[in-house]
Write a structure and sequence with these properties.
- This protein is of the alpha/beta class.
- It has helices at about 40-50, 65-75, 90-95, 100-110, 125-130, 170, 175-180, 215-220, 235-245, 250-265, 275-290, 300-310, 315-325, and strands at about 55-60, 80-85, 95-100, 120, 155-160, 180-185, 190, 205-210, 225-230.
- The chain has 2 domains: about 40-230, Rossmann fold (3-Layer(aba) Sandwich); about 230-325.
- Helices cover about 40% and strands about 10% of the residues.
- The strands form 3 sheets. The chain has a 5-stranded parallel sheet with strand order 2-5-8-1-9, with helices on both faces. The chain has a two-stranded antiparallel ribbon with strand order 3-4.
- The protein is elongated, with a radius of gyration of 24 Å.
- About 30% of the residues are buried.
Length: about 325
């Protein structure tokens, strides 16, 4: 029986004292349900064999970030260590953070020289390098509490959306990427001290880019590259089967949903919906018992769901509505 999303009425009526709790569908982004193409699998394995970063491009929502979680899951490396690039990011930010202001205040209060160590914390790339070393070779306090004393271990590092960072950042980390070492300038120490990580524990580095700007040639030469293409109907079918395994989305409903989704993606939209948005749309249909084909009925609740999730621009909404309700 079809349910209705009716927590908010939009007419001033206080239906509930509080909305129901958010219920996350863990299957939508579970690493074990990720499906990599043969090309992606080969690229991952080549990058691991050569000990170089894997640079992954593709449209937003095609699974670039989830690839890192899939690799970490299958290699039993724990959760990926994530660095999300920003327009203000520097090379140091990938390795450690130094609280200069806190250190300065402590020195002033004590009227004496104080050590910088308590004000330094390792970040994603730095954590991965430290985890590859025996605990005796670094200060345990640099790591998050959950990772202290647990090395040596291999990590997966995700540098997400590197094209958002300043252009100098990729070139500034070339040495560190090749040697898997870094220097904490404030205390003049290098990790590892001998300048080399045991190859058994060399971190696996996955770098994503939305291709918003070109990356330096020197950086590209040091990477294995793969582009994640948008999945075709057969791959979408397999993706849906894995994430909605209770039988409601049977083959007929899956075929209907995929056909509708591909019809929408074929439109000249400003922002075409990605796999993640397709799965979100199916999640709403699934939770409310709505048939996918109901989206082709004008003014239906299903059509409202489709335009809210699959279209991200007012002109795109008009196109999607017209396409779905065309006779």
């Amino acid at each position: 029986m079809t349910k209705t999303l009716s927590w908010y009425q939009g007419n001033g009526t206080n239906v509930l004292k509080a909305p129901p709790p958010f219920e996350h569908n863990e299957n939508l982004d579970a690493a074990e349900h990720y499906i990599a193409s043969a090309r992606v699998r080969h690229a991952v394995n080549v990058a691991i064999a050569l000990g170089v970063p894997l640079l992954v491009t593709g449209d937003p929502g095609t699974g670039k970030t989830q690839l890192a979680w899939s690799v970490a899951h299958e290699l039993n490396a724990g959760e990926p260590l994530v660095f999300s690039a920003k327009t203000t990011s520097t090379a140091q930010d990938l390795f450690y953070q130094y609280d200069a202001l806190g250190h300065f205040r402590a020195a002033r209060l004590s009227n004496a020289e104080t050590s910088a160590w308590p004000y330094i914390n390792a970040e994603a790339f730095g954590i991965a390098i430290l985890r590859a070393l025996p605990p005796a070779e670094y200060r345990d306090q640099l790591l998050p509490p959950a990772l202290r004393g647990a090395g040596p271990a291999r990590s997966v590092v995700l540098i997400d959306e590197i094209d958002k960072a300043p252009r100098d950042l990729p070139n500034d980390i070339l040495r560190e990427i090749e040697t898997m070492s870094f220097v904490i300038r404030e205390v003049r120490e290098q990790f590892p001290a001998q300048g080399k990580v045991d190859k058994r524990f060399r971190p696996i580095v996955i770098i994503t880019s939305n291709s918003e700007k070109n990356l330096p040639d020197a950086f590209l030469r040091r990477c294995v590259f793969v582009h994640i293409a948008f999945p075709g109907a057969a791959q979408l079918e397999e993706i849906v089967k894995r994430r909605f395994a209770d039988g409601w989305l049977n083959k007929g409903r899956r075929s209907e949903a995929i056909a509708i989704f591909e019809r929408i993606r074929a439109l000249p939209l400003k922002k075409k919906p990605a796999t993640a948005e397709f799965l979100a749309w199916l999640h709403i249909l699934h939770e409310n018992g709505i048939e996918p084909r109901a989206a082709t009925v004008k003014d239906s609740e299903a059509l409202a769901h489709a335009t809210a999730i699959l279209a991200k621009d007012k002109d795109d909404v008009k196109q999607v509505m017209a396409a779905l309700t065309a006779s």
